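Quick one:
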Amino acid sequence: MTADQTPAAPAGGSRAELIADTALALLAERGMRGLTHRAVDEAAGLPQGSTSNHARTRAALLAAAVRRLAEREARVLAPDEMPHPGGDPLGTADGQGGDALDSVADALALALHRTLTGQRELLIARYELALEATRRPELREFYDTAGRGFREPLEALLTDLGSAEPRRHAQSLAAWCEGLMFLCAAGADHAAVPGRAALRKGFVELLRGMRLGSGRSNSELRSLM
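Output:
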């Protein structure tokens, strides 16, 4: 696996994962109207009625898609894959991996670049689900819960970088990332995805603008990664 490739999923996925993955693919390809139980059966090569047995209602199928989306997005970085500018894992044995803020910026840039270059289908499916969640309160609950699974660790990381307002700073970072993801997946910049170096520079500028990274070493942040 090269540095810019998303870590592979474990082999031998379950039928539930196949159904949810197929639902996400259909959302990206055909939109919300193209997602039906029968369409999932056909696209996944499953006997008719298989998707209905797993998710009886449309709401249940959408909830399964949201959960699977969160699982797949969370795999964009391997657990030990938090590089510093030199390219080695964050928090090496001697703790001399460079400035912690730069290490975090490098890791965030890697994750975002992988998302922009290798997960366009997931991004489009996410936008379909986000819009549907505005009309379905029961889906809104699942969608918001999945979102907290990403936001809360980011807030904790920013706290340890020295943020006095980690929630606001996390929101600012998320807004910048969301804007780039939309531009590159569905907007005017779909043919001009920024390189990893450009993304890293953007993260460094944002983090330093928040007056973070005041002297913490990689060894101090190693446990958070």
